[in-house]
Amino acid sequence: MKNFITLEGSEGVGKSTQVRFLKEYCEKNNIDAVFTREPGGSKIAEEIRKIILDPDNKEMGDVCEAFLYAAARNQHLKDIVEPALKQGKIVFCDRYIDSSYAYQGFGRGLGYDFVKRLNQLAIGEFLPQYTIFLDLSPQEAFLRKGGADKADRLEQAGSEFFDKVYQGYKTVAEQEKERFIIIKPTGTKFETHDKIVEALKQKGIFPDNNAESN
Fold it and tell me: What percent of the chain has pLDDT over 90?
């Protein structure tokens, strides 16, 4: 879907910071963009998010979790993403369908095909035009983050789970090379931001003023 950009990566890679930097960049350069997140982004989807991430819901089954993510995604699309795209805006979403592939398909072991079939019902034609993948191993990411968040049910899943999630991301990125923009966040957060902006200019999402002047 044209102008629909998602950001992905394991816990602690710095997605939230990069989303904030992108928002500031768009505001500074008068780029008409909407910033949102998953799970959540709209009223009902945010309520589903609370259920998914609540650490008290330890008994939640893996299939139930996958269905809740898909339900939140469907509502979020209806409320936020689809209207913004129809208005000609760029939509940046912090996590989307690739999180389900990585976390539920690979991490939980439900399988890529199961998650794909489920989410085809939820999203229809609304696949991202590009997906920015912040490629950092979970060991490095959690070290930078300072450990797992005890208030987040998913972050308590353990290192083996997050290794599977990371490998899931790598597998999907390899399968969909045209869609994935792989960014190594190994420098400073500002250097990572510059890499993302340059990549989006090359893809024609952001205007490249230098190219125009040449």
Answer: 80
Under the banding of pLDDT at 50, 70 and 90, the label for residue 214 is very low
**pTM of the predicted model as reported, rounded to 2 decimal places:** 0.91
Residues 6+ apart with CB under 8 A from 180: 130, 131, 133, 172, 173
CA dihedral 31, 204, 94, 166 (to 10 degrees): -160
Rounded distance between C-alpha atoms, residue 158 and residue 135, angstroms:
19
Q: Are strands 33-37 and 180-183 parallel, antiparallel or unpaired?
A: unpaired
Q: Which residues contact 18 (CB under 8 A, 6 or more apart)?
A: 7, 132, 134, 185, 189, 192, 193, 196
- Mean pLDDT of all residues in 59-78: 97
Tell me the three state secondary structure of residue 183.
strand
Between CA 27 and CA 7 the distance in angstroms is 19
Closest CA to 155 of 169, 116, 146: 146
Beta-bridge partners for 7: 94, 132
Q: What is the pLDDT of residues 33-43, one digit of tens each?
A: 999 999 999 99
Q: Is the peptide bond before 39 cis (omega within 30 degrees of 0)?
A: yes
Contacts of 197 (CB under 8 A, 6+ apart): 22, 25, 206
**CA pair distance 131, 8, nearest whole angstrom:** 7
